[in-house]
């Protein structure tokens, strides 16, 4: 199953949920991003685990 969840707020790419696997990320602000853009964002926020 492939379910459209939303689109990346950064590049506009469609984000899908594939068999329970989410093809992107949702931020605390309920914004959806693809993995490419999320990587750039998490770099800014400096995740202490990173
Ligand atoms: Zn993106």
In a nutshell, what does this entry contain?
This protein is of the alpha+beta class and 50 residues long.
Structure description:
This protein is of the alpha+beta class and 50 residues long. It has one domain (2-45). The chain has one helix and five strands, in the order E-E-E-E-E-H. The chain has one helix at 35-45; strands at residues 2-7, 14-18, 21-22, 25-26, 32-33. The protein has a three-stranded antiparallel beta sheet with strand order 1-2-3, with no helix packed on it. A two-stranded antiparallel sheet has the order 4-5. Strand 1 (2-7) and strand 2 (14-18) form a beta hairpin. It is globular, with a radius of gyration of 11 Å. The chain binds zinc ion. Zinc ion is lined by residues 8, 10-11, 13, 33-34, 36-37.
Largest sheet report = 3 strands, antiparallel
Structural class: alpha+beta
Strand content: 25-35%
Low-confidence stretches: none
Rounded to an integer, what's the Rg over CA atoms? 11 Å
How many individual helices? 1
How far do the termini sit from each other? 32 Å
What is bound: which ligands? zinc ion
Overall geometric form: globular
Which range best describes the helical content: under 10%, 10-25%, 25-40%, 40-55%, 55-70% or over 70%? 10-25%
Q: How many domains, as an integer?
A: 1
Mean pLDDT: 86
**Strand tally:** 5
Spatial strand arrangement across the major sheet: 1-2-3
Q: Order of helices and strands, N to C?
A: EEEEEH
């Amino acid at each position: 199953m492939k379910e459209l969840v939303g689109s990346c707020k950064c590049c506009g790419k469609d984000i899908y949920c594939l068999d329970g696997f989410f093809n992107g990320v949702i931020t605390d602000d309920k914004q959806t991003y693809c993995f490419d853009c999320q990587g750039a964002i998490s770099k800014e926020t400096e995740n202490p685990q990173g």
